[in-house]
Amino acid sequence: MENSYLAIDIGASSGRHILGRVVDGRMQLEEIHRFDNRQVRSGGHDCWDVDHLWQGILDGLKACKAKGVIPATVGIDTWAVDFVLLDSAGKRLGDAVAYRDGRTAGMDERVEALIPPQSLYAKTGIQKQLFNTIYQLAALQKEHPEQLEAAHSLLMIPDYFNYLLTGVQKQEYTNATSTGLVNAVKKTWDRELLDTLGLPRRLFGPLSMPGTVVGPLREEIAKEVGFQTTVILPATHDTGSAFLAVPARDDNAVYLSSGTWSLLGVENRDPITTEESRRQNFTNEGGAWHRFRYLKNIMGLWMIQSIRRELNGVDYVAGKERAAWTLDVKAGERQWSFPDLIAAAESAADFPSVVDANDDAFLAPDSMIAAVQKACAGSGQAVPRTVGELMQCVYRSLTRCYRDAIAGLSALTGRQYTSINIVGGGCQDNYLNHMTAQVTGLPVYAGPVEGTAIGNLVIQMIHGGEFADLAAARHSIRESFDIKEVLPQ
Ligand code: LFR
After folding, report:
1. How many Å lie between the centroid of ligand 1 and the Cα of residue 81?
2. Ligand 1 center to residue 423 CA distance, Å?
3. Probe ligand 1: pick from 9, 78, 81, max atoms within 8 Å of CB?
4. Which terms are listed as keywords in the entry (predicted)?
5. pLDDT digits 0-9 by tens, 253-310
6. Using CA positions, which residue lies closest to atom 4 of ligand 1?
7. Assigned domain for 87 exists
8. d(Cα 452, Cα 240) in Å, to the nearest integer?
9. 303 CA from centroid of ligand 1 (Å)
10. Within-domain flag for 481
11. Is pLDDT of 249 > 90?
């Protein structure tokens, strides 16, 4: 009987438990549990409901037991940049504030007064995003210095759940790099930078690489879920996992991890921290085996998800007031599925307006619908008045961003890219795939859909002896999953 491995993959809108095994060299997946992720208002901020997520993690482990499958190992990945602080007894201090919360407004200025952006980028290679941990910590220094004073450790979200599962605190490298506090060359926390920012060094310990064993489940947890297993570190940053699952045929492919964000880039051996790279806001995120993901964050399906929620009258953050917008339909008048939205976009194929999808105006607007309309009006273009026009505008804007990012990537790496590999939920959107091929002029290879969970499993499977190395795992991924080819017309 083959070994099973369990990936717990938690994204901004839901979490999944996916079992994987290798049968005759092919990877097989089985989703055994799914739970929603939601935000709540607490202390004047948008926060993750980590207790709800923890319950989801436990429920999924129990679902394994109910299926009679005991995984050899378990690994957790989530989005990046968010963290919790723990006191000396391991108790959480304050909330897990979500990265789109407004607390970081103006915090870049606070950081830049201490270190110029050029020096910061030269050290860390991390793009400037106002939601980065470095700015969140600056917000905390301002609003809740007492929490930082009382803190004994800082754990990124997956590190925190690993701690709850095992009682062991480890700081994983790939997620740590997203903080903007890790030195890209030394690959450890940049102590000089921590001192410059006035952050207590005791919060930043040794970094652990993907593949490291965290430990067995705590006795109480093993008893509660009904079995014992070993928790190990995948690339705990979901994008780090997703890139591992890209079944690229050659070195001339760009990778696109398509979910709430569109993360578009390549893998490099060394970080690129030139001034031009900083200016174009490309990032060098740490990956497994110290490979770097050189990529750009593009607003991604977040725009479409937000529009859908608004049309359907669904709250993103529980307890937050809903914003007003006007279109040819009213909120909740009917329920829109993603295929409905695609059909609407197709019906307005000639609508020409485009916005800069990477404008901060779309990061956390009160209303995405109103924000897109405002951007069109502000740039003297036709304002979308129907769902179809709005969706057409979003698709055009996103794919134009893809095209520009690839051009930037080519210039910065001095390489010509000849195809796009898309992994993640967004690769199911055929309309987006076709438009991407059309606008970039490159063939698109779409799949696998479960990129992140597969990448999580890859590290566990290499650790478990199923694959000799990443190349062998990627070969198996190519053989195991359906990958669609979409050619530019
Ligand atoms: C994708 C992702 C991106 C990161 C953003 C915030 O889920 O992890 O890589 O920039 O979320 O953490």
Report:
1. 7
2. 14
3. 81
4. ATP-binding, Kinase, Nucleotide-binding, Rhamnose metabolism, Transferase
5. 999 999 999 999 999 999 999 999 999 999 999 999 999 999 999 999 999 999 999 9
6. 80
7. yes
8. 8
9. 15
10. no
11. no
Ligand 1, pocket residues at CB < 6 Å: 11, 79-81, 99, 237-239, 259-261, 263, 297
What would the pLDDT profile of 325-345 be if each residue is shown by its tens digit?
999 999 999 999 999 999 999
Integer Cα distance of 286 and 173 in angstroms: 7
In angstroms, the CA 353 to CA 379 distance is 9
The structure tokens 């780090």 sit at: 240
Residue closest by Cα to atom 6 of ligand 1: 80
437-to-402, 420, 421, 442, 446 alpha-carbon distances in Å? 10, 8, 11, 5, 11
- Are residues 75 and 164 both part of a single domain? yes
Q: Which ipTM was obtained for this model?
A: 0.99
Domain presence at residue 387: yes
112 & 222 share domain: yes
Report the nearest-CA residue for atom 9 of ligand 1: 239
Distance 186 CA to ligand 1 centre (A): 23
Instruction: Dump pLDDT digits (tens) for 363-422.
Output: 999 999 999 999 999 999 999 999 999 999 999 999 999 999 999 999 999 999 999 999
119-166 tens-digit pLDDT? 999 999 999 999 999 999 999 999 999 999 999 999 999 999 999 999
**Closest to 203 in 3D by CA, of 187, 183, 184, 181:** 181
Active site residue 108: no
**In this structure, how many other beta carbons lie within 10 angstroms of the beta carbon of residue 23?**
9
**123 found inside a domain:** yes
**How would residue 318 be classed by pLDDT, with cut points 50, 70 and 90?**
confident
The whole domain housing 347 covers 248-447
Instruction: Select which of 46, 49, 159, 238 is catalytic.
Output: 238
Query: Which atom of ligand 1 lies nearest, measured to the CA of 263?
Result: 9
Domain termination residue (choose one: 173, 204, 232)? 232
CA of 238, closest atom in ligand 1 = 8
Same structural domain, 80 and 206: yes
Cα distance between residue 9 and residue 15, in whole Å: 6
3-class SS of residue 288: helix
| pLDDT number for residue 251 | 85
Q: Are residues 360 and 213 in the same domain?
A: no
For residue 79, the ligand 1 atom closest to its alpha carbon is: 8
pLDDT in tens, 56-85: 999 999 999 999 999 999 999 999 999 999
CA–centroid distance, residue 288 to ligand 1 (Å): 16
The structure tokens 């910065």 sit at 412
CA–CA dist 150, 424 (Å, integer): 39
Same domain, 147 and 16: yes
